Amino acid sequence: MREGHNNVIYRQDYLPPPFWIDSVDLTFDLDPAKTRVLNKMRVRRNPDVPPQALRLDGEELNLARVLVNGQGTSFKMEDHTLVLENLPEGNDPFELEIFTTCAPAKNTKLMGLYVSNESFFTQCEAEGFRRITYFLDRPDVMASYTVTLRGDKTKYPVMLSNGNLVEQGELDDDRHFAKWVDPFRKPSYLFALVAGQLVCREQRIVSRSGKEHLLQVYVRAGDLDKTEHAMNSLMHSVAWDEARFNLPLDLERFMIVATSDFNMGAMENKGLNIFNTKYVLASQATATDVDFANIESVVGHEYFHNWTGNRVTCRDWFQLSLKEGLTVFRDQEFSQDLAGEASARAVKRIEDVRVLRSAQFPEDAGPMAHPVRPDQYLEINNFYTVTVYEKGAEVVRMQQTLVGREGFAKGMALYFQRHDGHAVTCDDFAQAIADANPESPLAQKLEQFKRWYSQAGTPRVRAEGRFDEASGTYTLTLSQSCAPTPGQATKLPFVIPIAYGLVAADGREVASGMHVLTEASETLTFNGLQAAPVPSLLRGFSAPVILDHDYTDERLLTLLAHDTDPFNRWEAAQRLATARALKAIRGGGEVELDAPFVEAMRTVLRHPTLDAAFKELVLTLPGETYIAEQLETVDPQRVHVVREAMKEQLAQQLFADFEQAYEQNKDTGAYRPDPVSSGRRALAGLALAHLCLAARQSGDTVWPGKAYQRFKDAGNMTDRFNALTALVTSGHPLAAEALQRFHAMFKDEALVIDKWFALQASAPDRGGNVLPVVKQLMSHPDFNIRNPNRARSVIFSYCSGNPGGFHRADAAGYVFWSERVMELDSMNPQVAARLARALDRWKKLAEPLRTAAREAIARVAAKPDLSNDVREVVTRALAD
Known about the structure:
Blueprint: E1 9-10, E2 19-29, E3 35-45, E4 54-56, E5 62-68, E6 71-72, E7 76-78, E8 81-84, E9 94-102, E10 112-116, E11 119-123, E12 142-152, E13 158-161, E14 164-171, E15 175-181, E16 186-187, E17 193-196, E18 198-206, E19 212-220, H1 228-245, E20 253-259, E21 266-267, E22 272-276, H2 289-304, E23 313-314, H3 320-339, H4 342-364, E24 376-377, H5 386-403, H6 405-419, E25 423-424, H7 426-435, H8 441-444, H9 446-449, H10 451-454, E26 460-468, E27 473-481, E28 496-503, E29 509-517, E30 521-526, E31 534-537, E32 546-548, H11 553-562, H12 566-587, H13 595-606, H14 612-619, H15 624-629, H16 636-653, H17 655-665, H18 675-698, H19 702-713, H20 717-730, H21 734-746, H22 750-761, H23 770-778, H24 788-799, H25 803-806, H26 812-825, H27 829-836, H28 849-861, H29 868-878
Parallel strand pairs: 2-12, 19-20, 20-22, 23-25, 26-32
Antiparallel strand pairs: 1-24, 2-3, 3-9, 4-8, 5-6, 5-9, 7-8, 10-11, 12-15, 12-16, 13-17, 14-15, 18-19, 21-22, 26-27, 27-30, 28-29, 28-31
Helix pairs in contact: 1-2, 2-3, 3-4, 3-5, 4-5, 5-6, 6-7, 11-12, 12-14, 12-16, 14-18, 16-18, 17-18, 18-19, 18-20, 19-20, 20-21, 21-22, 22-24, 26-27, 26-28, 27-29, 28-29
């Protein structure tokens, strides 16, 4: 357990810092074994806080010197906290100088200053800066930074930090220095440092105001040809933020640096974003369409943080969604705007909702359930969650829905006018949006709306419709509820915007609008109707809720065929498929898809005007995790068997249609990762997978042969990997040869080999064959558990992404999980805690899996030197 930080922290206990740090002057003498850090700070007491000692956070540091105003001073250590009591009185600033050393080469946690591939990198969010120097390591302490880097000129020719490069030059002993000044005050978590042998793609741009800026993307030599898309995404991000929200780039230069050893996706350090290579490097030969889309989204996300997170930051870590939820919303809007046409925007929206429902809804229903703005934590790293990010984005989206797109832009402008340069709260943001739109439903119900920030759990909206034929009146009663979550037994009504339409049996839309549900139950009345309509509710997924309505198959088929809202059209298909899966799972018999369902899928597949991307979404069955969440008690292997059987039946009964879809969409011309081309490749890939699956049942060798030929001849990674996936998931013997060939082709491309590992670890489990493969992969020469990407590609793909293979009757999957959690915890607790979440929903499991899972969790919890990161997860999992 980490010393000095093993107590639960509560939001209600927040107090302002007793001291302010106005400026920080850091000098680094870079050495992998022993980096020297001289920290000169200008400090003053906070006059609003009673006089007290200055307590500075620090971890794994060697303290050499402490000076106050140039003189030695007394101090004491309490655990890893440096305590200074003999400080100047009054409110005048004083100079505090601290000299420490650290060992970046030994830093396997990848927090603070560490070495990766002989280069230096930092990761300071949330509490990594204390691993670099002693500091008030909290987000509400904002200071101006000057950073001087000194190091070997040959080993570290590139030395970067936040802000602007103001000076550089030669030193003795073949060393050199670079001095950086950040013109904006920032909290310590946004500090960044990079030094190493890197190459750079540069682009000069001119903003709308006429100012010139330098954009740079730094990577290791040999990867420069894979940075064009990242640079284009950055340019698009800069242009979009200025056009959509009037937020210009505020620095002379903006830098992105990629590293292969990184715990997260990327980090928004002011002006110097450090990225996982996964979200920077892409070429058509090595990256899929999904990779290209993810890079665009993540580059946008981190750039947008420049304003929503950096210029205005969090008062405390409980307010994390202030920046993350808002910035996820902004990157989603960015991707939708770049997608252009309505159908491509709808596809993006559906993809975002799939993530929310497959990952965040289960979190809301599990032991780690917490509000968008948590009330307590033991380890803040555990709250970088889909609730804070994705649900937080939905809360922001609802605010835009309630005030309108223009009203939201006005609210954003007021937010920055009030809070630029400050550390604030989620309440401050919501208040600004409401105050800019005083006549809006948000302003009128603001205090109630803010329950979205304070109440955990996913609300359920029950819809009941009645039609009176004599009067032509249709009444729709909407009621809301929310189940208890840990620490919150009772929930008050939310503000829930419900976009709706009423669709006649012949497909005509007879009514549409938006209703804001604020009471436990409300009734809407519609007059002048000729017949009972089909309600199309929660259009565009207008609120992050579960909708309960007794849809008949006939009504769902009407929505699938005619609804003008693409989201609800897709949702109708999902409901039809989920109902059939649940019936088969609960019934225990053989799966047999009915003719109306199959015919509906055929109609979508043959539809002359629907986009290929939309067809691919409709024809993709609900995921195993989503299906499992609809059950009270879950046998994951039964869920897996049923879903695979449904896929096989669709493959067989739509064989000719899949053949036609493949032939029509397989050729997309010169590679472009645009929505239309990507959608066609996605549909061709889905078709090929089903054709190979059908061939497996019939013994036909034609389509597996075509898939293997496609794999060999493909001109881009999307088509190649789709073909490889079709062979692996269908279990065809050609898969082994294709996997071997794929590795030989890309053995020097780490990100591609991650895909190779992940595909095998997440493959359908036939007879318990996946776990032995996973163990074999961990012995592969290319596997390195210390690299987070590689650990995720094998261990996470199996434990979190392969329910049918992980939840084994012999509990061997759980034993493997517990061993890996403890192994990772000893080197990188943050990654270990993420893995620990794989058994969050163990209480839903059928016996004997339930008991076996609990025993595995208890085995981890019993480890005496467990980190706070993992301890918090397993303790909450075991709680009643």
